[in-house]
Specification:
Helix 4 (121-129) links the parallel strand 7 (112-115) and strand 8. The mean pLDDT is 94. With 315 residues, the chain is an alpha/beta fold. It has a single domain, classed as TIM Barrel, CATH 3.20.20. It has ten helices and twelve strands.
Length: 315
């Protein structure tokens, strides 16, 4: 069985659902209850959350053959530009990911990415050899302090493997960073800078409290703070500034951006759209369709852009 995000399943025709925004990537989840115990994750081994949840999205299960046949037709229609495999750590997670990636590549002319935690560099090479275009490391925490509080003790190993992969396979690495786990904006900006210097793609997520997880009673990040980190990421990844160019308060809040024309640099709204691998828009992964939207899954309107820029000045 393969779990399919509800939006992806609707586009494929596996379920009927009304979509305010259609996913441009097909999201499939492999595994089940994870061997890891991340404090924020619905799939953590100690979690009592609905087993079909990842973040706030429901992922109903379907037979593999059914998923592949519907995926092939959806790709032929031009509904999806990419497939992303969301992989939890289970006993056979690597072999299952490799097998599914190969099957998708055999049947569909579409890039395949994998959001996965390889155990070592041999795993990395095996995934890339199977046709995976980008390996999305679930680093999640932007600092060792936050990593140890929410994920465990393996910070040095994880960072070292990301660095090794980035050096050996430039342009093939992405990292997921969750904002709202207790980090400062300064910590977030400097981690984005570190990843950018390694030519690693960064995808920003907003922490979403899920009932049944260790962090179920924690609040999502303030929208103003998230907007400032989005702006920082955009300026850094576009080569317009470095994290050390920004001005920070004593508590690590960004209080001034460089360059001074930063508002013009983000005026097209792309800074506030979903970030990560190409063609990934993750509709409503972090938020309800009624808002507030942390990551826009579509080009925001002029009014939405103005609101996003104004939000950076609040709080």
């Amino acid at each position: 069985m393969i779990n399919v995000s509800i939006g992806t399943a609707a586009v494929m025709g596996l379920v009927k659902a009304r979509l305010k925004a259609r996913p441009t990537t097909a999201y499939l989840m492999l595994g089940g209850r994870c061997l890891m115990d991340c404090a924020f994750c619905a799939q953590a081994r100690s979690s009592t959350a609905n087993p079909e949840l990842l973040s706030r999205v429901k992922w109903p299960p379907f037979k593999e053959e059914e998923v592949l046949s519907h995926l092939k037709l959806a790709v032929l229609r031009g509904d999806f530009k990419r497939v992303c495999l969301q992989v939890t750590v289970t006993k056979d997670y690597l072999s299952r990911t490799i097998e599914l990636a190969k099957r998708i590549k055999e049947q569909c002319d579409v890039p395949v990415d994998a959001a996965i935690l390889p155990s070592d560099f041999e795993d990395v090479k095996a995934l890339l050899a199977a046709g995976v275009e980008h390996i999305g490391f679930g680093l999640d925490a932007v600092s060792e302090r936050i990593f140890r509080e929410t994920k465990g003790p393996h910070w040095n190993h994880t960072i070292g493997l990301i660095e090794q992969t980035a050096h050996r396979f430039p342009g093939r690495v992405a990292v997921h960073l969750i904002i709202g786990l207790g980090e400062t904006e300064k910590e977030a900006a400097f981690m984005i800078q570190k990843m950018h210097d390694l030519k690693v793609i960064t995808g920003l997520f907003a922490f979403t409290p899920i009932p049944g997880t260790k962090m179920e009673s924690c609040a999502p990040p303030p929208l103003a703070s998230y907007r400032r980190i989005q702006v920082a990421r955009w300026l850094i990844t576009q080569g317009l500034a470095r994290a050390e160019d920004f001005t920070y308060s004593s508590d690590g809040t960004i209080i001034a951006f460089e360059p001074d024309y930063w508002e013009e640099a983000v005026a097209d709204g792309r800074a506030f759209m979903t970030s990560g691998c190409p063609d990934c828009n993750r509709p409503y992964y972090n938020e309800r369709p009624t808002g507030p939207l942390y990551n826009f899954p579509y080009p925001p309107s002029a009014e939405e852009i103005e609101q996003a820029i104004n939000a950076t000045r609040n709080g």
